[in-house]
């Protein structure tokens, strides 16, 4: 979240693309085409719809990601298929408003952004992506992040 805030201060265009800094996302113009096609407020990359997918993850990591998305779908009905992904295009003013509403940190932040967007009536388009695991560095996903995600999910369930 803090990187988002910093980036917004320096962004000059009407749209902001959010992605991991470890080069695990393949930059694509499909986001901009999808946005133009539907005039969406947010266009989110999805690993779990169409021909999207994940490559290079072990079974444990896949189960954690699928499980988090499944629980979120059941409890919050967000209307988006991939809530834990972090490759998205936002209208700048929408991102600013969402940042004012979001309170979570870590992995749950991505989910809260979509849940709050739906709550505020913003439109969300999806583009299937093939996510290839990072070449450099390590995931920060651990037990503490999983517990934080579950707490955030239950908080959103109770308050939205």
UniProtKB/TrEMBL annotation:
CDD domains: DPM1_like. GO terms for molecular function: dolichyl-phosphate beta-D-mannosyltransferase activity. Residues 2-98 form the Glycosyltransferase 2-like domain. Its main location: endoplasmic reticulum. Keywords: Endoplasmic reticulum, Glycosyltransferase, Transferase. One of its GO terms (biological process) is protein O-linked glycosylation via mannose. It is found in: Endoplasmic reticulum. Pathway: Protein modification; protein glycosylation. It catalyses: a di-trans,poly-cis-dolichyl phosphate + GDP-alpha-D-mannose = a di-trans,poly-cis-dolichyl beta-D-mannosyl phosphate + GDP. One of its GO terms (cellular component) is endoplasmic reticulum membrane. Its EC number is 2.4.1.83. SUPFAM superfamilies: Nucleotide-diphospho-sugar transferases (SSF53448). Transfers mannose from GDP-mannose to dolichol monophosphate to form dolichol phosphate mannose (Dol-P-Man) which is the mannosyl donor in pathways leading to N-glycosylation, glycosyl phosphatidylinositol membrane anchoring, and O-mannosylation of proteins; catalytic subunit of the dolichol-phosphate mannose (DPM) synthase complex. Component of the dolichol-phosphate mannose (DPM) synthase complex. Belongs to the glycosyltransferase 2 family. PANTHER family: DOLICHOL-PHOSPHATE MANNOSYLTRANSFERASE SUBUNIT 1. This is Dolichol-phosphate mannosyltransferase subunit 1.
């Amino acid at each position: 979240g803090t990187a988002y805030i910093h980036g917004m201060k320096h962004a000059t265009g009407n749209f902001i693309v959010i992605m991991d800094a470890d080069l695990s996302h393949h930059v694509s113009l499909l986001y901009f085409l999808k946005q133009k096609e539907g005039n969406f407020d947010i266009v989110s990359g999805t690993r779990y719809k169409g021909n999207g997918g994940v490559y290079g993850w072990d079974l444990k990591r896949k189960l954690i990601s699928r499980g988090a998305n499944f629980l979120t779908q059941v409890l919050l009905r967000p209307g988006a298929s991939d809530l834990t992904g972090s490759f998205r295009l936002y209208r700048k003013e929408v991102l600013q408003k969402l940042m004012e509403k979001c309170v979570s940190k870590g992995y749950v932040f991505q989910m809260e952004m979509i849940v709050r967007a739906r709550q505020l009536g913003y439109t969300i388009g999806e583009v299937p992506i093939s996510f290839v695991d990072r070449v450099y560095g390590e995931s920060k996903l651990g037990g503490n992040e999983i517990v934080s995600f579950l707490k955030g999910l239950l908080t959103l369930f109770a308050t939205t």
